[in-house]
Specification:
Elements (H helix, E strand, L loop, with lengths): L4 E5 L12 H7 L3 E7 L1 H11 L9 E5 L9 H17 L5 E6 L1 H5 L4 H11 L5 E6 L9 H10 L10 E5 L4 H14 L4 E4 L14 E5 L5 H9 L3 E3 L6 H15 L4 H26 L3 E4 L6 H10 L4 E7 L4 H8 L7 E5 L2 H11 L3 E4 L1 H9 L4 E3 L2 H4 L8 H25 L1
Helix pairs in contact: 6-8, 9-10, 10-16
The protein binds iron/sulfur cluster.
The site of iron/sulfur cluster has 12 residues, from helix 2.
Length: 418
């Protein structure tokens, strides 16, 4: 077990809420619709996060709870009914409708589970209703995906077929490449969850081996385990090291020799290491501070230290599941300081005191830090960019080397004008 230093912190937080995950989930499942039951603020957040689609009908929307709804539930139910009826009449292509709870719907204790049950009866055979919470009261933005996937697990039929199930949203082209590599290694029955069509949920059972692609799916993993699936523990497929160990763990679960994996991935790994060099030149020896937001921080820290030679000042994570993260923690240097949770004021004090070269943080903190002369990288970019896999390692490193390079250029220009 790694000897990293663990700390916990609670206090004011500065993170996006789970509604944000709708942005990548609705791209993944084009036959699904995400209906946020929330306020105008929620509608505004989701519209600005996703951009407004002008030529296509959007696949997300908001049933607005007005201020008067906070006094009673009757109007909220009425508004929800009106929006759902309208949507289903206008959009026959919708196969699954996610009712997404928010802070306002939780505050007025709107029971979306019961609403979904009633709607399932009314629209039986036409549209499936599923509910989960994207509220920011307790969760951060990636946990929205955990809630959505957990809500789908009871709908997955049972099967004892042996298969590898990749769990966590991937960019479609990354998923295709992973499947090709697994096939070359000798694992042929590979499925993904979430699937590309919401109605094509994989069947699961005791011979399903679950390999996570994202670290923030603790609740989904727990429910898959309850359904009899075997969890394959591995580092996450970021960078050459993480991806190699990820493939090796899957191969081990299918009793495929290590040598076969190395044979298949060696050319990819060699190319990726070469492509990484130009980024490592910029990142080597630079001090990195990761503030907690996405739960990807530990895997990113491992990649940026082990493959790009950055120095880790502090690695924040909003939540730490030690079982899922053990393989990652073992790869971190022994003196790594990990902080679970957030007290944003204290963390910012530590950022300023340590004078890092780069801070990975939420968008709300990036501008003030930049104004103080500290380079930043938005953590949300990691979930919108295809960063998984060996051949994406250089692109992932590029996300961090670019702001440093830009700063170097700006600094040298400023010096030249003085
Ligand atoms: S769910 Fe809560 S945190 Fe998210 S936009 Fe709505 S009110 Fe804000």
């Amino acid at each position: 077990m790694s000897k990293v230093e663990f700390n916990k912190e609670t206090g004011p937080r500065e993170v996006f809420c789970g509604l944000t995950s709708i942005v990548w989930l609705h791209r993944r499942m084009p036959d699904a619709f995400f209906l946020v039951v929330g306020s105008r603020t929620c509608a505004h957040l989701i519209q600005s996060a996703a951009g407004v689609m002008i030529f296509a009908e959007p696949r997300f929307g908001t049933a607005i709870l007005e201020e008067k709804d906070l006094a009673g539930l009757a109007d909220a139910h009425e508004e929800l009914d009106r929006v759902v009826n309208d949507l289903i009449a206008r959009r026959p292509e919708i196969k699954t409708l996610f009712l997404v709870g928010s802070c306002p719907s939780e505050v007025i204790k709107l029971d979306l589970g019961t609403v979904a049950e009633k709607l399932n009866t009314r629209f039986l055979g036409q549209v499936r209703f599923v509910n989960y919470s994207g509220s920011g009261i307790e969760t951060t933005f990636t946990q929205g995906e955990d809630g959505a996937l957990k809500a789908l697990v009871p709908l997955m039929e049972s099967s004892d077929d042996e298969k590898l199930l990749l769990v966590g949203t991937l960019a479609n082209n990354v998923e295709d490449r992973f499947k090709k590599i697994f096939n070359n290694i000798g694992i042929n029955n590979v499925e993904s969850f979430p699937p590309r069509q919401s109605t094509e949920l994989p069947k699961i059972g005791k011979n399903t081996k679950v390999l996570l692609t994202q670290p923030y799916l603790s609740d989904t993993v727990r429910d898959l385990e309850h359904r009899g699936c075997e969890i394959v523990y591995a580092p996450f497929p970021l960078g050459v090291e993480g991806s190699t160990k990820w493939f090796l763990a899957a191969a081990d679960a299918f009793k495929i020799p290590e040598l076969k994996v190395h044979e298949v991935i060696a050319p990819l790994a060699n190319r990726a290491r070469q492509a990484l060099e130009k980024h490592t030149e910029i990142l080597r020896g630079k001090k990195l501070f990761l503030l907690p937001e996405s739960q990807l921080e530990i895997s990113l820290a491992r990649f940026l230290h082990n493959e790009c030679e950055m120095d880790l000042v502090e690695v924040g994570t909003p939540y730490l599941n030690k079982d899922l993260m053990e393989e990652e923690l073992n790869l971190l240097p022994d003196d790594t300081k990990i902080v679970e949770g957030q007290h944003v004021e204290k963390q910012l004090d530590r950022v300023r005191a340590s004078n890092p070269d780069l801070v990975v943080c939420g968008m709300g903190l990036a501008n003030p830090l930049e104004a103080e002369g500290i380079s930043t990288k938005w953590s949300i970019e990691m979930v919108f960019s295809p960063i998984h896999g060996i051949d994406q390692a250089a692109d992932l490193a590029g996300l961090f080397s670019r702001p440093l390079k830009r700063n170097q250029i700006l600094t040298s220009k400023t010096l030249a004008t003085h």
